[in-house]
Amino acid sequence: MTFLHTAVETAPSPLAAETPMVAFEAVTKRFGGADDKSQFTALDGIDLSVARGAITGIIGRSGAGKSTLIRLVNGLEKATSGRVVVDGVEVGALSETGLRDLRRQVGMIFQHFNLLSSRTAFENVALPLEIAGLSAKEIRDKVAPLIDLVGLGDKSDRYPAELSGGQKQRIGIARALATSPKLLLSDEATSALDPETTQSILALLKRINAELGLTVLLITHEMEVVKTIASDVAVIDRGKIVEAGRTFDVFTGAKHETTRSLLSAALGTNLPEWIRSNLKPQPSAGDRVLVRLIFFGSTAFQPLTARLVTELGADINILAGTIEEIAGEPYGSLVVAYPADPAVTERAERFYAATGLSTEVLGYVA
Amino acid sequence: MSPDMLFNLLLKALGQTLQMVAVAGLIGALIGLPIGVFLATSGKGELFPAPVTNRIIGAVVNAARSTPFIILVVAIIPFTRFIAGTSIGTYAAIVPLTVATIPFVARLTEAAIREVDKGLIEAARAMGATPLQIVFKVLLAEARPGLTLALTLTLVSLVGYSAMVGAVGGGGLGDLGIRYGYQRFMPDVMLAVVVVLIVLVQAIQSLGDALARRFDKRNRKT
Known about the structure:
The complex is a heterodimer of chains A (366) and B (222).
Chain A: H1 2-10, E1 22-31, E2 40-50, E3 55-59, H2 66-73, E4 81-86, E5 89-90, H3 96-103, E6 106-110, H4 121-131, H5 136-149, H6 165-177, E7 183-187, H7 195-212, E8 215-220, H8 223-229, E9 232-237, E10 240-246, H9 247-252, H10 257-267, H11 273-276, E11 288-296, H12 304-312, E12 317-326, E13 329-339, H13 342-355, E14 358-365
Parallel strand pairs in A: 3-8, 3-9, 6-7, 7-8
Antiparallel strand pairs in A: 1-2, 1-4, 4-5, 9-10, 11-13, 11-14, 12-13
Helix pairs in contact in A: 4-5, 4-6, 5-6, 6-7, 12-13
Chain B: H1 3-41, H2 51-66, H3 69-75, H4 77-84, H5 90-114, H6 118-126, H7 131-142, H8 144-162, H9 173-183, H10 187-215
Helix pairs in contact in B: 1-5, 1-8, 1-9, 2-5, 4-5, 5-8, 6-7, 8-10, 9-10
């Protein structure tokens, strides 16, 4: 039995593939002096795991602690307490040398690209390889395909000042991929770019994730980014993870106030001002009820709105609406108003229950 | 004075000035540059954190910078004698010139290095660069236009300082101007000296500017 026990311990665990690429365990980070007054708690008891091969987004407002969080992964910041484990290695326990080895396996891209202005695109991509001590020939063989991969084969000899924002970020991505990392950290990589360029950079990240099987951990304050490429999301607010899970689940079932407010812009769930200011919490005679209908999963593909009109036997106003794709799944939201007459609302409730349509009563208007 | 004589005097003085500026500039830069890099990278939380040493070196640099050059020249005569074997002549004059150049270059280097975007240091750290790799591959490379201008300024200042070492028999253009132009009332010599100095400074500055422009890839047209 003893033998068996040892064997189990030393053999590579079949669960290795299931262990997360990054795990935060009760991580706290405080900045500032020794006394309580000058201290600032940036991260407070973070527990989070980043799945292997997935694109995970961490979203929060500025100052929420997301920059600090991502910098703990490659040891640019050190946790005050708790553990950060990257691919089975505890980052906080590494020596300077160990940390440098880890960083060569973890690529990072930045909001302001951080390219060296004195180096051409080619030379920028070559930098991490020079740092790793590769020969000039090895570097040439690695850099050219990377620049092709990001679609800038013809810009190899250009300096960053001669490139557009999107092109700079593509070079940043090629540079981050140069040492063939297993994990890519993205620090607000699209925040300095216009919406169109943002989409093209996100598409590139998605392609790299799919083709190279690279795990991506990104931080952003833009729901749009998470919605477009992240399969998993964690919402961070004032140093705490307030919601985490599959992107679609978190988005469609947002419970926390921060998630909701971040979502409202991205999902078009903001009510027009003229409705919001007239909204009443209780109905009076002759009022109309405002209901948000949420379509996703099976309900997204059925002609439910048309059937609702027939079922209610009453007029429906459509006040706001949107149809989106969240992490590759369709999601629709429609704000409708119909008479708050008990007979009508009862028929509506029955219809919602029968179809599995998810709804939310927003209030009443005259 | 015959034009021939004037020409020979000027040539000799120019040679002495160039010698003093070149040697003091070279040695001063070789010593001042590393000190400047250290000053720019040894603050709290920087690449080579050594805040106490940083403050001490900073204070020494400030002290040297605030001493008027002519005072420095006479104050360090024993040191000059120790290094050059004499305290008089062009070679001896190189010693105080170098001593004055080191802190000058150090401060200008520090400023040029601090101009480099902190994001680049972070990016290099994230690539697994050692602090020395960051200095050589990132800081010095990115600061090259600024360093070129700093060295240009150093050389121009040295031309000015070298005029003062006539006080210790250092020779050079400044000395020629004082002894012939001023003390012997020979305005033609003075004028010639001033013209040569103007041309010399202009040449150094133009060369430095051109080099800095070539190194600077930040403002290229897209």
